[in-house]
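Per reviewer request, we include the raw input and output of the structure prediction for the construct analysed in the revised manuscript.
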Amino acid sequence: MIDLLHIKNIGIIDDLCINLKEGFNVLTGETGAGKTLIIGALKILSGGRFSQEMMRTGSHHSYVEMSLDLPQWEENVIVSREINNSGKNICKINGRLVTVSELKDFMKPIIDIHGQNDNQSILDLNQHIQLLDGYAEEEIGNYKKEYNNLYVQYIKLKKELSLNYGDDLEKQRKLDLLNYQYNEIQQANLKEEEEEELEEKRKRMLASEKIAMNLKEAQAEIDNHSIDSLNNAIRALEKIQTYRPSYAELVTRLKDSYYEVQEVSRDLSIEDVYFDQEEQNIIEERLNCIHALKRKYGNTITQILEYQSKIEKEIFDITNLETYISELKEKLSNLENEMLTISKKMNEIRLQYAKQLSQEITQELKELEMKNAIFEVKVEWLSEENFHPNGLNKVEFLISTNQGDEKKSLIKIASGGEMSRVMLAIKTVLADVDQTPILVFDEIDTGMSGMAANSTGEKMKKIAKHHQVICITHLATIAAKGDSNYYIFKSNEGNITKTHINELNEEQTIREIARIANGEITKTSLQNAKEMRKISQKIA
């Protein structure tokens, strides 16, 4: 239900807040006070069209928001829409920005607005079968669930069957390409983690080349220079070692160094450093091959091998297409047989309940002073290739409003008043099963006589036991049946006109009923209003 409706800068509405209640909310007031603008605000919040003419004169933007109390949500849902004078829309659901289309989709199952020219829900042919099935829910519900499970599988199989590789020439081209790709990967004989191992080996080989080169250079320097130089230095000192003890000590130290350098030279000569240029070339070649495959088929060897498995399956599917299609067709045929059996059962139930629903709605129309109206819920059986989410039935609401007239589609009814009554009759019969929580009626009683108006009010009162009903009316018989009554009026402040709304207490409600009924409030009109109120509040 709507807890709060806030409207700003729409027509003559400056800044208006309406606290709505459960049950039957009746809005009354004089012509031009702004009642229709409130319905317009609800349409805007439902994703409806906004024209610049609706914006309050002198304003730069219009703003509408509502607080919704919905059973499926733990907290209230805040829906808002702001339109500036450049036409830009800002729509939000619980603070999250959405498009107008998303707002419309969100609000569609929540609010249903009906008036002289607003009966789109019952004009939607797709809704007719849903309404009938809701009416027959007790018997048809399990069959629909079973059918829907099969239908999901059916769509999946149909999609697989629609997979088309083109004509024979196109199929061969596709097969040649896939075989080339598969063979290219297959011939590479890739292994998981091979690339990491090769990279590590490559690093070691590059290091080996550098080590071998520097060891060789170090040995050459020692052999060609250091040993001979030390040997010459020892001989020179030996010639003078007798002259001073320190020279003899230097000879000893040089000889130690000479033997150490010789030892280092021998160690360098036997150092085993492996480097094979041919092997390095093989590693580089293998890595280049892997990198080339990665550019074509995946970022890693794992992805390349996964792609190979994928195209292997595709090659198999193409080369074995006839067998594959045959198997799919057999599965599809079995599914269709199951779906056909359930569809026939649903058809029987729909035919039975369609007759019952037709009678009930026709009776409701008679009570709304459409004495000659005949309503029919037409259930048509479709050919077996036309399976859809609801089986093999097409359901359409037909009506004839005058005696002797041929029954025509509801969509072809010209009169907005007649359409409103038909909608009200349908909503009354389907009140228990209709899932839309908020119903809005905008002056659908226009042109009705006393009996029809009284019946209209009773039916809206009945619907309000299962839905929040918001109704704008000019008729006292309907206003008398309200659970919550509101009076809409306007005031002139200088050159500015503003709309106001007051929630009425019981005494004020009776005075408003008296005003609507007689045009003025007198002792007699008040007494009549009290009687109307007393009778109306007894309606079960």
